[in-house]
């Protein structure tokens, strides 16, 4: 499932990417360009703008009425019946997101040596698994942030943690 989010949904985008969903976002984009991208790339438009959903050429969309990004995320998961339970219950799987939260590009597994100059020395010495964004080059590793994100998602989605 591929999404495009309007400029009012920047905080939501990060959470969708953490869940591995291909979600494009431009903070400043003309409505006509946003609609063209949605149509040409067969993306589902996520928006809070009721004017946008009235566009004739728009095929797939979800009009979000919630202000809170976590409420918005719950609405998207419900509306599209997204299966996120299994991803989040396993800490290792949840930490191994497949999308860069910054630019949406795919993350690739890389060796420690590939990211040595990009990560803090302590991280280099203590981590064994690294991923790197194929777009912007940002390195990722299994530190405390992925577990915090996983726990927050479990909480907002009302999923009980695994024993």
Textual characterization of the structure:
This protein is an alpha/beta fold and 163 residues long. Helices cover 39% and strands 16% of the residues. The protein is built from 8 helices and 7 strands. It has helices at 10-18, 31-40, 69-79, 85-89, 91-95, 112-115, 121-126, 144-156, and strands at 2-5, 22-25, 44-47, 61-63, 107-110, 130-133, 139-141. A 4-stranded parallel beta sheet has the order 2-1-3-4, sandwiched between helices. α1 packs across α3. The chain is globular and about 55 Å long. The mean pLDDT is 87.
Instruction: Give the oligomeric state.
Output: single chain
CATH architecture of the largest domain: 3-Layer(aba) Sandwich
Number of helices in the DSSP assignment: 8
Portion in strands: 15-25%
General form: globular
| Low-confidence parts | none
Q: Overall mean pLDDT score?
A: 87
Following the backbone from N to C, one meets helices and strands in this order, namely EHEHEEHHHEHHEEH
Helical fraction equals 25-40%
Strand line-up in the sheet with most strands = 2-1-3-4
The description of the largest β-sheet is: 4 strands, parallel
The total of beta strands comes to 7
Gap from first CA to last CA? 30 Å
Class by alpha and beta content: alpha/beta
What is the fold-level CATH name, i.e. the topology of the largest domain?
A: Rossmann fold
How many domain modules? 2
